[in-house]
Amino acid sequence: MKVMSKLLNHLHLDPKYGVLNVQSAQVVYELFKLIDFRGTGALDDIQFTSFLQSTTNLSQSHIEKIFYIFDLDRSGSVEFDEFYLLVCILVAVNNNEAKQFMYRHWSTCFELLDEDGSKSVSKKEFETLGVLFNFGSRAVDKIFAEFDVSGTREMNYNEFKLFMFAAMDTEMEMEKQQQEKKKKKETNNTTQLKYIADYLNKKRAKNKTKKSVQPI
């Protein structure tokens, strides 16, 4: 999923708590009231779809599945608390903090994923919300292969918790490798530039020497 909203570019998560800071939360509340033009205190599926279509590149089918997930009380609408959580996820994704968000709020994420209240998350359920967090189908296959310890093809609460810790560790390791790769590339570029500069200086010095020698 890609976030395409200019408004969400200006919203940020509190680094300490991993949720929207006070200013951002106020903006989201005003946004919710604008979308809820009837003043019902909740968004129906049409309003919810309109919001996600204008802020992301999600398909209609994915939006419908996500609406079902965030309609926690199965009332056919999404209230502000649920909308607030959705925006937190969108901001986290937009700021490349999706996995950190899942790590901080893994209990809430588990409850969202557990659509049928079975106290476990199936592969299908994980794929639905995985769309928001940019977990592709191959990544989901790998996750379940590694963390479905019980072999039930579902992740229970403890298995999901293990996944969160592992995902964060993997993310940190990948970030470290990326930084090292970037540093190595910068070092190589500096070395190449130095080599070119030395070569040009030697060439200039050689040409200068030739010009200074006058023929007899």
UniProtKB/TrEMBL annotation:
Residues 58-93, 135-170 form the EF-hand domain. Keywords: Calcium, Coiled coil. Transmembrane segments: none annotated. One of its GO terms (molecular function) is calcium ion binding. Signal peptide: none annotated. The keyword Coiled coil applies. GO terms for cellular component: cytoplasm. The keyword Transmembrane does not apply. Residues 167-194 form a coiled coil. It comes from the Eukaryota. This is EF-hand. It comes from Piromyces finnis.
